[in-house]
């Protein structure tokens, strides 16, 4: 199985999960029949089948154009309009993608902007793009979010000074709503190439739409395989039988743990490339479940690094947390620890062992310690970190999130809290009508 799940270290007994079976079944029906709260945003459920095939072919043509012409691709977006593509990019690209030689990389450098309001960040980005062929993918579903809108104005102004207005228009691709919002209006007026974020797919569920697919294609990720993995997930995790559906088991166990006072879920990885998957996952679960005075606080850690900072608290602090670890099977082409004649570092006892093997022992040692410290542990396994599995994992988390939200009793597809901050900011900045 490419993605696996086990909860043998969760301290949950099988009968506890069985009690949830009718509720999970009800949640499944609400989601699939599109009858639950927020169902107008449940378009992602069958997106891997229903996506616009013509648009996807055009996306590949534009992606090829970026690959051939750009040295730097700037992706402007925030929240759901950037975290998914960043998560997949970081998981599947070279760890030092932007720094390696152009000839080895073969595809443009990729930088994410529009996700903060730091003057320093923008000054520094100008250093990065100096004398480079720059293309921009500006992404905003609403088309009105302040951070990406400000970033776009700054970057566009810079590009117009460098390339002139007409050439700049050819280098900008807008991904936004099909008919409304300031970005759509601007794109129409300027004649930008445009891709659509479907009406029925919310920002945090949009990674498998052009939001994620265009930038990922442009940096050489096999988006066909990503979609194929997600599609496999869509089939496998649409099984209403909880005992046969690991996404539903994960959803149920989370809710049982939450009822037992485990208010914080920590997503653990042992692979630096998965750090941004944690960031994407935090938005997905935080925005979907954190409402009506309910929710599990989603946190993430990168082990083994964070064992040396957060390990103490997890092992020995307040017992209100549980962990979900993503574990990847060791690679065949792994690096081995060599023998050293002097053995001054005392490491000869692991000579010939691979880094993956040692990493796996770090996981097992940590699991033993944390379970010993009464931290329930859920384990998600992946046989390889590739496009197919990451696509399937994305769908696993999305499906589990929707079911978990319905079991918890919230609308998992709205985000009134985010809208509140956006409106306050408009008011404070003096925007008309606020
Ligand atoms: O999930 C959401 O809807 C939000 O977090 C959005 O993704 C985020 O606020 C960005 O919004 P937009 O794409 O409209 O600029």
Mean pLDDT: 96
Instruction: Please state the CA-atom Rg, rounded to the nearest Å.
Output: 23 Å
Broad shape: globular
Enumerate the strands of the largest sheet in spatial order, edge to edge or round the barrel. Answer: 1-10-9-7-8
Structural class: alpha/beta
Let me know the largest β-sheet. Answer: 5 strands, mixed
Indicate the percent of residues in helices: 40-55%
The CA-CA distance between the termini, in Å, is: 52 Å
H/E series? EHHHHEHHEHEHHEHEHHHEHEHEHEHH
Low-confidence stretches: none
Give the number of DSSP strands.
Answer: 10
Q: Which molecules other than protein and nucleic acid are bound?
A: 5-phosphoarabinonic acid
The number of helical segments is 18
Strand content: 5-15%
């Amino acid at each position: 199985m490419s993605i696996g799940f086990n909860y043998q270290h969760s301290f949950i007994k099988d009968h506890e999960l069985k009690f949830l079976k009718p509720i999970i079944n009800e949640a499944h029906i609400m989601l699939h029949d599109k009858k639950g709260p927020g169902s107008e945003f449940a378009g992602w459920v069958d997106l891997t089948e229903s996506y616009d095939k013509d648009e996807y072919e055009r996306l590949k043509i534009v992606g090829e154009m970026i690959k051939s012409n750009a040295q730097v691709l700037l992706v402007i977006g925030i929240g759901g309009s950037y975290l998914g593509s960043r998560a997949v990019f970081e998981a599947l690209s070279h760890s030092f993608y932007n720094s390696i030689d152009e000839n080895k990389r073969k595809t443009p450098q990729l930088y994410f902007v529009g996700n903060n309001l730091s003057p320093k960040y923008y000054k520094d980005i100008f250093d990065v793009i100096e004398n480079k062929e720059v293309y921009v993918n500006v992404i905003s579903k609403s088309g009105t979010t302040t951070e990406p809108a400000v970033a776009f104005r700054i970057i566009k102004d810079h590009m117009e000074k460098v390339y002139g207005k007409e050439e700049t228009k050819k280098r900008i691709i807008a991904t936004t709503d099909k008919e409304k919002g300031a970005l759509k209006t601007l794109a129409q007026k300027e004649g930008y190439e445009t891709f659509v974020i479907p009406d029925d797919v919310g920002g945090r569920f949009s990674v498998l739409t052009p939001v994620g697919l265009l930038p990922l294609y442009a940096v050489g990720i096999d988006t066909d395989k990503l979609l194929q993995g997600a599609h496999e997930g869509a089939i496998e995790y649409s099984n209403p039988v909880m005992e046969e559906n690991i996404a539903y088991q994960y959803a149920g166990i989370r809710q049982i743990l939450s009822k037992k006072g485990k208010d914080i879920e920590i997503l653990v990885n042992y692979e630096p490339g998965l750090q941004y998957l944690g960031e994407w996952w935090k938005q997905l679960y935080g925005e979907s479940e954190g409402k009506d005075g309910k929710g599990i606080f989603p946190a993430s850690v990168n082990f083994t690094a964070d064992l040396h900072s957060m390990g103490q608290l997890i092992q020995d602090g307040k017992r209100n947390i549980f962990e979900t670890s993503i574990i990847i099977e060791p690679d065949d082409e792994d690096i081995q620890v060599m023998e050293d004649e002097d053995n001054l570092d005392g490491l000869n006892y692991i000579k010939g062992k691979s880094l993956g093997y040692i990493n796996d022992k770090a996981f097992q040692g940590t699991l033993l310690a944390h379970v010993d410290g009464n931290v329930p542990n859920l384990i998600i396994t992946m046989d390889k970190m590739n496009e197919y599995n990451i696509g399937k994992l994305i769908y696993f988390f999305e499906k589990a999130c929707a079911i978990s939200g319905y079991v918890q009793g919230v609308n998992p597809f709205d985000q009134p809290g985010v809208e509140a901050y956006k409106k306050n900011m408009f008011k404070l900045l003096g925007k008309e009508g606020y």
